[in-house]
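Chapter summary example.
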Amino acid sequence: MLQQREMVTMPQHIEHPVFARFYANLAAPALEKAGVAEHRRRLLAGLSGEVVEVGAGNGLNFPHYPPEVKRVVAVEPEPRLRALAETQARGAPVPVEIQDARAEQLPYPDDAFDAAVVCLTLCSVADQHAALAELHRVLRPGGQLRFFEHVQAGSPAMRRVQRVLDATVWPRLMGGCHTGRDTQAAIATAGFTVTTVDRFPFPATRVPSPAATHILGTAERP
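The structure predicted for these 222 residues follows.
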């Protein structure tokens, strides 16, 4: 496993200044207004011990961690979002450490964490399979992966729209985000056992959105 990680060549630093400002000032407040806080609470409910959150963004999950969590290590490679996460961490109900690192190359030993959290993250990592392999590696046997992600749509027509957008403008405008990844299948392929999954549209809008289909659930490292 170590040799495979050393062979991966990708930049350590990710900068999306325009997207970071858009997300922090417009997208994140809009999601909060649409009710995303309830999904964040569902995502984190019942966690305990040491947790790694990958793609922490500006730290909007931090207020929702339960007191049974001893420590959160929050990974965020985008410097502007990471700075906002550091501010958010100061008021968190549990200890939060902010780390500059990539999901595909986590700087932690094997079996280091009791749980891992990904929230609206696996859509935008450069290599989803490598990121999930790293999460599998750093989780202890029996550890949980908690996920809340927008994913591939259910209808063939919307999937065609997603393929066109993902091959053209969407990743460039949205900080590397892809609308049509089959993230649930990727989690299973990485060696996790998916134990619960809820599939639903979010936010509720009259106009169909290519990023509306979401999954929220848990998976376990056997």
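To summarize the output: Strands lie at 49-54, 69-75, 96-99, 113-119, 139-150, 193-201, 213-220.
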